[in-house]
Every structure is written in C-alpha cells, then in structure tokens.
Design brief:
Elements (H helix, E strand, L loop, with lengths): L3 E5 L2 H12 L4 E6 L3 E7 L5 E8 L5 E4 L3 E6 H7 L8 E6 L2 E6 L3 E6 L17 E6 H14 L2 E7 L2 E8 L2 E8 L5 E5 L4 E6 H10 L4 E6 L5 E7 L2 E7 L7
Antiparallel strand pairs: 1-5, 1-7, 2-3, 2-6, 3-4, 4-18, 7-8, 8-9, 10-14, 10-16, 11-12, 11-15, 12-13, 16-17, 17-18
C-alpha cells in the first residue's frame, strides 16, 4: 500500500540529492518526515560524512503520512535515474518498491532494500575560520593540486586562503586574497592549516550543483563544507589527514 508520494518540480534537485549521495555511499536510507526528506551517511572508509536535507516547501507534491526510512542501492538508482534536467519527477512507494515517474512518459520501478545505518552525530567542532568561495574556482584548484599529489593542504589566515600540494620536489600552489572576486564571505583571524584527501574533495565539488560553498576550518581538524541548492541544504564533513600519513 502506498503511503508516500513526493514530487520534484525540478528534476535537477532530485538528481542532486541522489547523485551526490551516491558518490560516497553504496547503500543508505532516505528518511522522510512530514517536514522534510534527508539522508545522512558515512562512506565505507569512514573518511567523509554527508548530509542532505530538502524541506517539504521545495516539493511540488508532498504526501508523507508518517516518518519513514527507505533503503536504496544508490549505484542502481543512479544508473536508472539520470539526466533528469528540468523534468517533473514523482516518487512513490508500493509493495516494497519505489516507483519513479519522470515527466509524463517514463516510469521506473526500483526495489527497496533493508539497510542498517547507525546513528551518526555530527561532530561539534568549534571552527575558527569560515570562507565562502565560488565552487567552480575551488574545483579547478583542487584538480590542479591533484595532478601533483593526492593530498591537498588548505591554509587560511587574515589575508586569504592558500591551497597547495607537493610531491617529489613538484609543487602546486594557489592563493586567494580575502578581497578576491572568487571569495564571497571571509572570516578568519588566526592561521589555520590542515591536510585533506584531494579525490574526495573533487568528487564532492563536481557533483554539488551549488554556485558557492562555505568552508569551515580548524587546524588539523575535518573541514566542514556547506552549500544551498534550490532550497536543499548540503553538508559534507571531510576528515583531515595527519601529517606524515
């Protein structure tokens, strides 16, 4: 018996939700309440935590009678559901399956799976620095640094933010002053510095459709990246790499 039905007026928001989550987790639970749809999960290697929340006001149609968790295989789901563009997308559940209607033409039926996911509290880190930056600019910097090393160093102080990578005598470096046009908001007093796995950062930035992202930084601590996209709230927590790893 169907007891939920949600409709994305803009299929790009649906694609963002499922594709971004699927970059880091193979299976997970979609949590639905009368107020919102969300997912929160950690990757298998426990390097990153991702949380996406879409309030009901974003949806064209929202019929959720009670709190519900739906387990899905993100690899399978994203293989079947892609390139949604601006099409209307409606998702409902019935008889242990999800029915996805794309536009007025295509219907997909995808199995619901059992998925045990432990409660995942978000670490309460007192961040010293918060910088909002153009996402595409940060993505290009991360790609260039990845050519040099699989680890990226991020250092910020009251003058700006610096990204660097080094290996075997080769160095890549990019500095953005706090007044740079690519910086939207800048809050930093003391110097903070930490190292992160570049590949994870690139995967997030490539699949996050927001125009800007905010970086919250603290020395030798995970970086917390947040973004808004068409009403959806996105949080990505990426573990720092210890020096010498």
């Amino acid at each position: 018996m169907t007891n939920l039905k949600i409709g994305f007026e803009n299929g790009i928001v649906a694609e963002q939700f499922f594709k971004l989550a699927g970059q880091f987790i193979e299976e997970g639970n979609i949590c639905l309440t009368k107020e919102d749809v969300s997912i929160k999960s950690i990757d298998v290697q426990q390097i990153c935590l991702i949380e996406i929340n879409i309030p009901r006001i974003v949806f064209k149609q929202y019929e959720v009678e009670e709190d519900k968790k739906i387990g899905i295989d993100f690899d399978l789901f994203n293989k079947e559901i892609n390139k949604l563009k601006n099409k209307l997308v409606t998702i409902s559940d019935s008889d242990g399956k999800l029915t996805v209607v794309i536009g007025n033409l295509m219907t997909k039926t995808i199995p619901i799976i059992e998925c045990e996911v432990p409660e995942l509290p978000t670490p309460n880190i007192p961040y010293d620095t918060e910088i909002e930056i153009n996402r595409k600019t940060l993505l290009e910097i991360a790609k260039e640094c990845y050519k040099t090393s699989s680890t990226i160093s991020i250092e910020a102080n009251s003058y700006g933010i610096e990204f660097s990578a080094s290996k075997d005598g080769t160095n890549s470096n990019a500095f953005l002053g706090k007044e740079a046009k690519e910086i939207i908001n800048f809050k930093a007093v003391e110097t903070v510095k930490a190292l992160f796995p570049t590949e994870y950062l690139i995967s997030f930035l490539k699949n996050c459709f927001a125009e800007t992202v905010s970086l919250k930084l603290k020395t030798d601590s995970p970086v917390k990246i947040t973004a808004d996209f068409n009403g959806a709230k996105i949080m990505f927590l990426l573990a720092n790499k210890m020096r010498g790893d």
